[in-house]
Design goal:
There is one protein chain. By secondary structure, this protein is of the alpha/beta class. It contains eight helices and six strands. It folds into two domains: 30 residues; 160 residues, P-loop containing nucleotide triphosphate hydrolases (Rossmann fold, 3-Layer(aba) Sandwich). The chain binds adenosine-5'-triphosphate and magnesium ion.
Amino acid sequence: MSEPDRNARHAARMARKKALVDAAIAAATDERGLLLIVTGNGKGKSTSAFGMVARALGHGMRVGVVQFIKSRTDTGEEAFLGRQPGVEWHVTGDGFTWDTQNRERDIATAQRGWTIAARMLADPAYQLVVLDELTYLLSYGYLDGDVVLDALAHRPPMQHVVVTGRAAPDALVELADTVSVVADEKHAFRAGVKAQRGVDF
Ligand code: ATP
Ligand code: MG
Protein backbone atom coordinates (compact mmCIF):
# COMPACT_ATOMS: atom_id res chain seq x y z
CA MET A 1 0.00 0.00 0.00
CA SER A 2 1.32 3.48 -0.89
CA GLU A 3 2.02 6.01 1.86
CA PRO A 4 -0.95 8.32 0.83
CA ASP A 5 -3.29 5.26 0.83
CA ARG A 6 -2.08 4.27 4.28
CA ASN A 7 -2.65 7.84 5.55
CA ALA A 8 -6.17 7.94 4.09
CA ARG A 9 -7.02 4.57 5.67
CA HIS A 10 -5.70 5.74 9.03
CA ALA A 11 -7.75 8.98 8.82
CA ALA A 12 -10.95 7.00 8.01
CA ARG A 13 -10.33 4.58 10.89
CA MET A 14 -9.74 7.45 13.34
CA ALA A 15 -12.92 9.23 12.16
CA ARG A 16 -14.96 6.06 12.86
CA LYS A 17 -13.31 5.73 16.26
CA LYS A 18 -13.93 9.38 17.11
CA ALA A 19 -17.64 9.01 16.22
CA LEU A 20 -17.92 6.05 18.61
CA VAL A 21 -16.07 7.82 21.44
CA ASP A 22 -18.09 11.03 20.95
CA ALA A 23 -21.36 9.04 21.08
CA ALA A 24 -20.27 7.28 24.29
CA ILE A 25 -19.31 10.62 25.87
CA ALA A 26 -22.65 12.17 24.84
CA ALA A 27 -24.50 9.22 26.39
CA ALA A 28 -22.75 9.62 29.77
CA THR A 29 -24.76 12.44 31.29
CA ASP A 30 -25.04 11.43 34.96
CA GLU A 31 -23.17 13.32 37.63
CA ARG A 32 -22.87 11.94 41.15
CA GLY A 33 -20.45 10.95 43.86
CA LEU A 34 -18.56 7.78 42.99
CA LEU A 35 -17.25 4.91 45.05
CA LEU A 36 -13.94 3.71 43.67
CA ILE A 37 -12.00 0.64 44.74
CA VAL A 38 -8.34 0.15 43.91
CA THR A 39 -7.41 -3.38 44.87
CA GLY A 40 -5.16 -6.26 43.77
CA ASN A 41 -1.66 -7.43 44.66
CA GLY A 42 0.33 -5.05 42.46
CA LYS A 43 1.92 -1.74 43.41
CA GLY A 44 -0.10 1.40 42.71
CA LYS A 45 -3.22 1.33 44.87
CA SER A 46 -2.49 4.02 47.45
CA THR A 47 -0.58 6.15 44.96
CA SER A 48 -3.61 6.05 42.65
CA ALA A 49 -5.80 7.32 45.49
CA PHE A 50 -3.29 10.08 46.30
CA GLY A 51 -3.23 11.06 42.65
CA MET A 52 -6.97 11.72 42.96
CA VAL A 53 -6.30 13.75 46.11
CA ALA A 54 -3.95 15.97 44.06
CA ARG A 55 -6.55 16.28 41.31
CA ALA A 56 -9.32 17.21 43.71
CA LEU A 57 -7.14 19.77 45.49
CA GLY A 58 -6.25 21.28 42.13
CA HIS A 59 -9.96 21.93 41.69
CA GLY A 60 -10.21 23.53 45.12
CA MET A 61 -12.16 20.61 46.56
CA ARG A 62 -12.12 19.64 50.23
CA VAL A 63 -10.54 16.25 50.91
CA GLY A 64 -10.45 13.86 53.85
CA VAL A 65 -7.89 11.05 54.12
CA VAL A 66 -7.82 8.24 56.66
CA GLN A 67 -4.86 5.87 56.50
CA PHE A 68 -5.93 2.79 58.40
CA ILE A 69 -2.64 0.96 58.30
CA LYS A 70 0.62 2.79 58.18
CA SER A 71 3.88 0.92 58.03
CA ARG A 72 6.08 4.02 58.15
CA THR A 73 5.90 7.61 59.35
CA ASP A 74 8.01 9.28 56.65
CA THR A 75 5.87 9.08 53.52
CA GLY A 76 6.13 11.77 50.86
CA GLU A 77 2.37 11.83 50.38
CA GLU A 78 1.69 12.78 53.97
CA ALA A 79 4.58 15.30 54.05
CA PHE A 80 3.34 17.01 50.91
CA LEU A 81 -0.40 16.43 50.47
CA GLY A 82 -1.10 16.34 54.19
CA ARG A 83 -0.09 19.97 54.63
CA GLN A 84 -2.00 21.38 51.66
CA PRO A 85 -4.92 23.62 52.51
CA GLY A 86 -8.18 21.78 52.01
CA VAL A 87 -6.93 18.40 53.27
CA GLU A 88 -7.62 16.73 56.56
CA TRP A 89 -5.16 13.83 56.93
CA HIS A 90 -5.42 11.17 59.63
CA VAL A 91 -3.09 8.25 60.21
CA THR A 92 -4.62 5.77 62.60
CA GLY A 93 -2.79 2.48 62.00
CA ASP A 94 0.19 1.41 64.08
CA GLY A 95 1.65 -0.74 61.34
CA PHE A 96 0.75 -3.98 59.65
CA THR A 97 -0.90 -6.55 61.82
CA TRP A 98 2.16 -8.78 61.68
CA ASP A 99 4.14 -5.87 63.21
CA THR A 100 1.80 -5.11 66.06
CA GLN A 101 0.91 -8.74 66.88
CA ASN A 102 -1.78 -7.49 69.20
CA ARG A 103 -5.29 -8.16 67.95
CA GLU A 104 -7.11 -6.23 70.68
CA ARG A 105 -5.04 -3.13 70.08
CA ASP A 106 -5.47 -3.43 66.31
CA ILE A 107 -9.24 -3.59 66.72
CA ALA A 108 -9.26 -0.52 68.96
CA THR A 109 -7.08 1.34 66.43
CA ALA A 110 -9.36 0.28 63.58
CA GLN A 111 -12.39 1.57 65.47
CA ARG A 112 -10.66 4.89 66.12
CA GLY A 113 -9.98 5.27 62.41
CA TRP A 114 -13.51 4.27 61.53
CA THR A 115 -14.97 6.91 63.85
CA ILE A 116 -13.11 9.58 61.86
CA ALA A 117 -14.08 8.02 58.52
CA ALA A 118 -17.75 7.74 59.53
CA ARG A 119 -17.80 11.43 60.45
CA MET A 120 -16.43 12.32 57.01
CA LEU A 121 -18.88 10.01 55.25
CA ALA A 122 -21.74 11.87 56.94
CA ASP A 123 -20.52 15.35 55.99
CA PRO A 124 -21.10 16.73 52.47
CA ALA A 125 -18.32 19.30 53.02
CA TYR A 126 -15.83 16.49 52.22
CA GLN A 127 -16.00 16.18 48.45
CA LEU A 128 -13.42 13.38 48.27
CA VAL A 129 -12.71 10.87 51.03
CA VAL A 130 -9.82 8.41 50.80
CA LEU A 131 -9.97 5.32 53.01
CA ASP A 132 -6.49 3.93 52.49
CA GLU A 133 -5.99 0.22 53.31
CA LEU A 134 -9.56 -0.13 54.59
CA THR A 135 -9.99 -3.57 52.98
CA TYR A 136 -7.69 -5.27 55.50
CA LEU A 137 -9.83 -4.24 58.43
CA LEU A 138 -12.81 -5.80 56.71
CA SER A 139 -11.05 -9.04 55.80
CA TYR A 140 -9.63 -9.39 59.33
CA GLY A 141 -13.08 -8.66 60.75
CA TYR A 142 -11.77 -5.68 62.77
CA LEU A 143 -14.69 -3.57 61.53
CA ASP A 144 -18.29 -4.62 61.04
CA GLY A 145 -18.69 -4.96 57.26
CA ASP A 146 -22.39 -4.10 57.34
CA VAL A 147 -21.75 -0.87 59.24
CA VAL A 148 -19.06 0.15 56.75
CA LEU A 149 -21.19 -0.70 53.70
CA ASP A 150 -24.15 1.15 55.16
CA ALA A 151 -22.11 4.31 55.78
CA LEU A 152 -20.71 4.16 52.23
CA ALA A 153 -24.14 3.56 50.70
CA HIS A 154 -25.74 6.46 52.59
CA ARG A 155 -22.98 9.03 52.21
CA PRO A 156 -23.78 12.46 50.68
CA PRO A 157 -24.82 11.98 47.03
CA MET A 158 -22.05 14.12 45.52
CA GLN A 159 -19.22 12.76 47.69
CA HIS A 160 -16.50 10.66 46.02
CA VAL A 161 -14.85 7.90 48.05
CA VAL A 162 -11.74 5.90 47.20
CA VAL A 163 -11.04 2.67 49.09
CA THR A 164 -7.67 0.94 48.68
CA GLY A 165 -6.19 -2.35 49.84
CA ARG A 166 -5.74 -5.92 48.68
CA ALA A 167 -8.58 -8.43 48.50
CA ALA A 168 -11.56 -6.07 48.47
CA PRO A 169 -14.59 -8.01 49.79
CA ASP A 170 -17.25 -8.93 47.20
CA ALA A 171 -19.97 -6.81 48.83
CA LEU A 172 -17.74 -3.73 48.60
CA VAL A 173 -16.95 -4.42 44.94
CA GLU A 174 -20.68 -4.86 44.33
CA LEU A 175 -21.46 -1.46 45.83
CA ALA A 176 -18.65 0.35 43.99
CA ASP A 177 -18.97 2.28 40.73
CA THR A 178 -15.39 1.89 39.54
CA VAL A 179 -13.15 -1.02 40.50
CA SER A 180 -9.54 -1.34 39.39
CA VAL A 181 -7.47 -4.43 40.15
CA VAL A 182 -3.74 -3.73 40.01
CA ALA A 183 -1.88 -6.85 38.92
CA ASP A 184 1.48 -7.85 40.37
CA GLU A 185 3.49 -8.67 37.28
CA LYS A 186 6.87 -7.82 38.79
CA HIS A 187 8.08 -5.91 41.83
CA ALA A 188 11.65 -4.73 42.43
CA PHE A 189 11.47 -5.84 46.08
CA ARG A 190 11.58 -9.46 44.95
CA ALA A 191 14.84 -8.69 43.13
CA GLY A 192 16.30 -7.51 46.45
CA VAL A 193 15.71 -3.75 46.04
CA LYS A 194 14.76 -1.98 49.26
CA ALA A 195 11.84 0.49 49.37
CA GLN A 196 12.85 3.56 47.38
CA ARG A 197 12.12 7.14 48.45
CA GLY A 198 9.73 8.87 46.06
CA VAL A 199 8.59 5.53 44.62
CA ASP A 200 7.59 3.31 47.53
CA PHE A 201 7.08 5.91 50.25
P1 ATP B 1 1.75 2.22 46.62
O1 ATP B 1 1.59 2.91 47.95
O2 ATP B 1 3.18 2.28 46.15
O3 ATP B 1 0.75 2.65 45.60
P2 ATP B 1 0.14 -0.07 47.15
O4 ATP B 1 -0.77 0.80 47.92
O5 ATP B 1 -0.38 -0.66 45.88
O6 ATP B 1 1.51 0.67 46.87
P3 ATP B 1 0.49 -1.70 49.53
O7 ATP B 1 0.11 -3.13 49.59
O8 ATP B 1 -0.33 -0.71 50.27
O9 ATP B 1 0.63 -1.32 47.99
O10 ATP B 1 1.99 -1.64 49.99
C1 ATP B 1 2.67 -0.46 50.23
C2 ATP B 1 4.16 -0.65 50.07
O11 ATP B 1 4.51 -1.96 49.65
C3 ATP B 1 4.75 0.27 48.98
O12 ATP B 1 6.03 0.63 49.40
C4 ATP B 1 4.81 -0.60 47.77
O13 ATP B 1 5.83 -0.25 46.85
C5 ATP B 1 5.07 -1.96 48.36
N1 ATP B 1 4.43 -2.98 47.51
C6 ATP B 1 3.26 -2.89 46.89
N2 ATP B 1 2.98 -4.00 46.18
C7 ATP B 1 4.03 -4.82 46.37
C8 ATP B 1 4.37 -6.13 45.90
N3 ATP B 1 3.57 -6.79 45.08
N4 ATP B 1 5.55 -6.67 46.32
C9 ATP B 1 6.36 -5.99 47.15
N5 ATP B 1 6.10 -4.76 47.64
C10 ATP B 1 4.96 -4.18 47.26
MG1 MG C 1 -1.38 0.96 49.83
